[in-house]
Amino acid sequence: MLTVANYDATPPLQSAIWVPLNLILFQREETLRPLPRTDERAQHVLNVLRRQVGDAFDAGIVNGPRGKATLLAITDRQLELSFAWTTEFTAPDPITLIIGLPRPQTARKILQETAALGVGALHFVRCDKAEPSYADSTLWHSGEWQRHLEAGAAQAFCTGIPAVTHGQLFSDAIQSLPASANRIALDNYEAPSALSQCQPANVTPLTLAFGPERGWSAGERDLLREQAFALAHLGTRVLRLETAIVAALAIVKAQRGLM
Asked: What φ, ψ does residue 109 adopt, rounded to 5°?
């Protein structure tokens, strides 16, 4: 079963908003009404940023502009805010990740780090060697994944959030990719060359595929080759999945002049 995460269709969780360090994010409709004192963002404004009436702080709209929020009034129940947007939205990089469903605690790290690094889309897929129960985690079905994406974006002082799906079969995911995308799959065992030696074209989208924590099956490697994926490795060391993803993104973004 494929589940598509959509920020417009999925409302934020009440009392479960991640408290960011560098930027406070809002859904667009939230900027049209007061912010309840019980909201963690309000507590952050008052108790961490120590803002008073008349003070401003950095704010942004998820997948929208960034600017300043000014604290107009403080009551026992809410904060009155006004917003001035000064920086237009910048879309994330055209990089898509296909990731074998990992343990929920690993997925939380991946959500945050990839949002911070600015990827365009994340597809967490069912693979032969992935634990099936991972797809049933409350991470995916409670809406918790939203908080981790927002935390990563806020840490990076940006508003762009990757599109996310989870629960799709690996075979379905790679067969539905745009034909124009460069395709590279990370593999510790049969990859003939290092990722740093691959030179994906700067002008086209890029898809990076990462197997689950137990790696690709033989059948999945065959399917990757059939779907025009080049196999590449990150060296002789065996890395945790979340570490491999960050390392791979650093390499390809550097190749494209994006960092």
From this structure: -65, -40
Of 22, 193, 213, 50, nearest to 131 by C-alpha is 213
The pTM score is: 0.86
188-235 pLDDT, tens digit per residue, is 899 999 999 887 666 678 999 999 989 999 999 999 999 999 999 999
Domain residue ranges in the chain? 24-87, 93-255
Lowest mean pLDDT among 146-155, 167-176, 192-201: 192-201
Domain 93-255 fold is: Alpha/beta knot (3.40.1280)
**CATH of region 24-87:** 2.40.240.20
Q: What is the mean pLDDT of residues 10-39?
A: 74
